[in-house]
Amino acid sequence: MEERIHNKGMGSVVKDIIAIPSGEIEFVLFKKKFPVYIFIIKTTQGNILFDSGFSSTIFSDSYNPEQYLGSAHKFANINLSDDQKAIHMLKRHNIETGNIGTVVLSHLHFDHAGGILDFQEFNKEKIFVHELEYEEIYSTYTMFGDYGKSILSFVKNVRKINGDRYDLFGNGEVTLLHTPGHTKGHISLLYKSCKTGDNYLFLGDVSYTVEDFLNNNYSGSVYRKTARDTFDKIRKIIIDEQVKYVLTSHSLGTCEV
User: Fold this and answer.
1) What CATH number did the domain enclosing 72 receive?
2) Mean pLDDT confidence for 29-41
3) Alpha-carbon gap, residue 257 to 242, rounded angstroms
4) Per the confidence metrics, is the pTM higher than 0.70?
């Protein structure tokens, strides 16, 4: 299986996928900064938002990192300008929240699910998270300050999937894959484009970057053995599903496989 980094920007690679920058996160332990991307996937059943970036709460005058993020503020710093809020960035791509049919949250960390708190009027039946992710945030939310309380309250009424695979529309176009390790209920997304005929795998935080993926490096994980097993599963999915492109949430571009 030949692998290489595809250096082109998303707009020039795929016409029905938009990668939208939503700030930057710095992991203190790694002394590394990573961009944060959310994705719009234009399917035959409407637009999917895969992850939602940071919450606009961090722009309030009363924002306090320790109060909002709890213990997480010790290992992560957020760099985000006001115009990089998810809602603003979507509008810059001529996408209103009313034009989004479905939201899929890979997991409930604040750089992936925080922005969903700005979508209070969105139909929660159209927001998907794995039930094991909900169970995990339910048991750990007190560690994550005000964000933990807010996200737990919000996701109580969203759609919770279970099992290893979930056919989102029932037509095989989009499949949600349980890929635990980084968190217990982490989800990746397999998209089979009717427009290009190619298959795309959105990893979320299975690996932080495409370089990490090519070098067999999984992301910082709470469940390390599970993360290794998931990495093996991803490799098999790529072969079985004839995946052409792999995308991560903390690097721009694609890994062509």
Assistant:
1) 3.60.15.10
2) 89
3) 9
4) yes
For residue 29, the enclosing domain spans: 4-256
Percent of the chain topping pLDDT 90: 59
Query: How is the chain classified by DSSP, letter by letter?
Result: ---EEE-S-HHHH-TTEEEEEEEEEEETTTTEEEEEEEEEEEETTEEEEE-----GGGGSTT--HHHHHGGGGGTEEEE--GGGSHHHHHHHTT--GGGEEEEE-S--SHHHHGGGGG-TTS-GGGEEEEHHHHHHHHHHGGGGHHHHHHHHHHHTTSEEE-SSEEESSSSSSEEEEE--SSSTT-EEEEEE-TTT--EEEE-TTSSSSHHHHHTT-PPS-SSHHHHHHHHHHHHHHHHHTT--EEE-TTSSSEEE-
Domain count, the chain: 1
- Higher local confidence (pLDDT), 63 or 1: 63
Position 209, amino acid: T
Tokens 């094991």 appear where? Answer: 132
